[in-house]
Specification:
It is built from no helices and nine strands. About 30% of the residues are buried. The protein is an all-beta fold.
C-alpha cells in the first residue's frame, strides 16, 4: 500500500514530495502496519532560494504485532538528501497496531530555506498513514 502527498513552502519556491510504502499484516481480528520504504525529493523552483539543513524523521509507535502490551517506539532521524529512497524494512522494526490508540506511523521531512542574507524560513512536511 502507499500514501503520497506533497507540500509547498509559503513562497512557492520549494516543494517536497513524499511517498510512504507500507504493508498491513492481519493477526487475529486486528491489522498491524509496517513501513517498508519511504521516498522523498525536494524540488527548488527559485534559484535565489537555497535549501539547507535537510532532515528526515521516520517513526512507528504503538502496540507491536508480537502481542506485548507495552508500546514500541521505533524512530530514526538523520540528515536528508535532495532525493532518496530509504528501505525501512531493513531496520528490523516490529509492525504496530493499525489505528490503535497511541499508534503513529509517519515520516517528517524538513529544511531551512534562505533567500540571500535577507530572509530565512522553514519547510516541514509530515505524512501520516495512521
Amino acid at each position: 500500500m502507499t500514501k503520497a502527498d506533497y507540500k509547498d513552502d509559503p513562497s512557492l519556491s520549494v516543494r517536497v514530495y513524499m511517498t510512504i510504502y507500507y504493508t498491513l499484516y492481519p493477526s487475529g481480528t486486528f491489522n498491524y502496519a509496517g513501513i517498508t520504504k519511504i521516498s522523498y525529493r525536494f524540488e527548488n523552483y527559485d534559484s535565489s532560494v537555497s535549501v539547507e539543513n535537510k532532515k528526515i524523521q521516520i517513526g512507528q509507535a504503538g502496540i507491536g504485532i508480537s502481542g506485548t502490551t507495552h508500546p514500541y517506539d521505533q524512530y530514526v532521524s538523520r540528515n536528508a538528501l535532495t532525493s532518496e529512497t530509504i528501505l525501512v524494512s531493513g531496520f528490523g522494526w516490529e509492525p504496530v497496531l493499525w489505528g490503535g490508540i497511541g499508534t503513529a506511523v509517519a515520516a517528517t521531512v524538513s529544511a531551512d530555506l534562505h533567500r540571500g542574507t535577507s530572509s530565512s524560513w522553514s519547510l516541514s512536511f509530515q505524512l501520516v498513514i495512521t
